[in-house]
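Whiteboard transcription, Tuesday session. T.W. wrote the structure tokens on the left side:
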């Protein structure tokens, strides 16, 4: 895990993608069953950092099939901050962070961008944890069971994760009587090693989840900000050197404002000799 200071200098120069105004005819309608319900308010816990309240939502395990086992549920964690929110009567917006591969608190504590902008837009801030991470583990919260084999791990997919976000935010809006509040989704890359799962079949896509969310659920989100998202950054789609090229460019820009010590520190963080594959398979093109 890297420090906040590092994250902020890292995020700024990287490319951001705004996906406002993209229309899509190909969204997958998801099944909103009455199974999903919010737990009572007593389950909400203020965070030690004072940045949000922690809540849980009873989420459906499988959004796309109708087998009996598809109706299993799990507790999905989300973090919420309504301090700046203008409220439903003003149709004040909702800033939604589409959680990536890790505990959601870490992303909430390092995404100052949403907190910085929420007061100006009078936005509600919501961070949703990605299924199978942190406290959002299906199969009774037992990680060993949840990750034991294909029949349990098969529910870990970006398609299911996006449907989780759509289900949760839709229920939350109903609950808050804020059905007309526009939702803007945010996703940021958490580290430039491109994640722990890159050698596995399911590559989480990090910030790209926000862009995909806007594409698949245009009726739920009016826009997405996918910072440093590897939109086309997948093996064999783009040049394997794109990532390194853009990193080099970033260091060039950064070097104007950083001391040589900062730059050396960044290079040491970036260069990971233990990595089995070079960090150049994904691009930010
Ligand atoms: C929301 O975040 C601000 C800090 O930006 C904090 O002062 C406030 O207490 C938080 N509100 C909640 C409900 O956690
Ligand atoms: C997969 O794991 C689950 C939970 O541990 C277990 O009940 C099931 O029998 C396993 N299935 C196979 C095919 O190994
Ligand atoms: C990329 O292309 C090479 C050469 O065609 C192929 O061997 C490899 O399996 C491909 N990789 C992926 C992940 O599709
Ligand atoms: C059905 C349900 O979960 N209702 C909740 C909606 O939000 C209010 C206030 O935040 C709660 O008190 C309700 O329990």
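and on the right, the sequence the group agreed on:
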């Amino acid at each position: 895990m890297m420090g906040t200071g590092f994250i902020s200098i890292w995020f700024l120069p990287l490319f951001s993608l705004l996906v406002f105004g993209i229309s899509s005819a190909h969204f997958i309608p998801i099944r909103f069953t009455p199974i999903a319900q919010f737990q009572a308010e007593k389950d909400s816990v203020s965070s030690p950092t004072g940045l949000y309240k922690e809540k849980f939502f009873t989420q459906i395990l499988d959004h796309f099939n109708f087998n009996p086992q598809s109706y299993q549920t799990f507790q999905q964690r989300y973090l919420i901050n309504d301090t700046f929110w203008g409220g439903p009567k003003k149709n004040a917006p909702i800033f939604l962070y589409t959680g990536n591969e890790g505990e959601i608190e870490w992303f909430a504590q390092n995404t100052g961008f949403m907190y910085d902008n929420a007061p100006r837009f009078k936005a509600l801030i919501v961070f949703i944890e990605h299924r199978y991470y942190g406290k959002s583990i299906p199969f009774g919260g037992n990680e060993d069971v949840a990750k034991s084999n294909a029949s349990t791990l098969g529910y870990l997919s970006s398609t299911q994760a996006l449907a989780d976000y759509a289900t949760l935010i839709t229920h939350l809006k109903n609950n808050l009587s804020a059905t007309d509040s526009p939702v803007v989704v945010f996703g940021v890359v958490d580290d430039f090693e491109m994640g722990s799962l890159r050698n596995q079949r399911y590559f989480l896509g990090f910030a790209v989840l926000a862009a995909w969310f806007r594409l698949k659920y245009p009726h739920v989100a009016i826009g997405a900000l996918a910072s440093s998202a590897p939109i086309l950054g997948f093996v064999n789609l783009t040049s394997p050197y794109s990532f390194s090229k853009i990193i080099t460019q970033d260091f060039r820009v950064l070097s104007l404002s950083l001391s040589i010590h900062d730059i050396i520190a960044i290079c040491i963080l970036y260069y990971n000799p233990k990595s089995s594959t070079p960090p150049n398979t994904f691009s930010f093109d």
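Someone added at the bottom: The pocket of 2-acetamido-2-deoxy-beta-D-glucopyranose (ligand 3) is lined by residues 235-236 (CB under 6 Å).
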